[in-house]
What does this fold into?
Amino acid sequence: MASPLDPNDPCPARDGFAMPAEWAEHARTWMCWPSRVEAWGGPEGLLRAKQAVARVARAISSFEPVVMAVRPKDAAEPQLACSGKIETFEVPLDDSWARDSGPTFVQNEEGALAAVQWQFNAWGNKYAPYADDAAFATRLAEASQTKLYRAPLVCEGGAIHTDGEGTLITTEQCLLNTNRNPHLSRQQVEMRLALYTGARRVIWLGEGFADEETDGHVDNIACFAGPGRVLVGVPSSHSDPDFEPVMEAIRRLQEARDSEGRALEIVELEQPRRTRSDWRGRPLATSYVNFYLPNDGIVMPAFDDANDERARLVIADCFPGRDILQIDALDIVEGGGGIHCITQQEPAGP
It folds into this structure.
């Protein structure tokens, strides 16, 4: 349960901090080495996940430094798998989704950095144990001597996305879920998001998304591609279970205005044509929206699908001048997330 909100407590917005856009310059990328066997259905799936995570880390390292958090007993693995192209940070871990359990970084106008530790409950108590992941952001901040704020809200980094100008998008399915913040109203959740990310406008997408693992994380559905511009992943078939929820999300975005009062330009990004199931038998949550923006680059997923190249062209058009590396992400997605989910950007300092 999220703790009470004390109006006198220090928080990022009151102290002049806000969450930058992902396309702002980074100091480094944080990742976590896969460790929870059951997330990938067994040792073979975990091994494939490690190989895929290493491919992503090597790709990002061609644009900016990468630090891989890893359990001490596994410390040698990522250095070998990543050919020495990364640094490691030895720390207790339960799982491997740096976006969700890692800190959300915020910054003030002078470029000073701080970190937000959300309350983490393993996506609505879906996995146990999770105490080490719930403490990961704090341990990272303490090790790097970064100012830390503890947010009174159960939230994951993949549940929110910002334009860096005060507009944030999220979904009702996730943050208003009874397995996250059952005692909080929409207004109370919005207030906590505003105080701990600096958002001045929260745009709520709806419910009904097929993603049972994260309960509709927005980073599989939509993301900002610049101020006033939103990329939305649109299922390639009207019979897809996500088609109607995505159409509702587009309707809401069309009616919304950002923090500056602008209407939003919506760029539709057709999702993979091929329907797959994960090792559990559930629909595999393949999404081209789940990409990452290192400095001057784009690391995006490929799914051995007829729409891979079309997606690359759409994203390239949204971010001109960036080099694109498209990485086979199927072995990552088997664990319930994508490339964006395994990465967390640290903004560059002053």
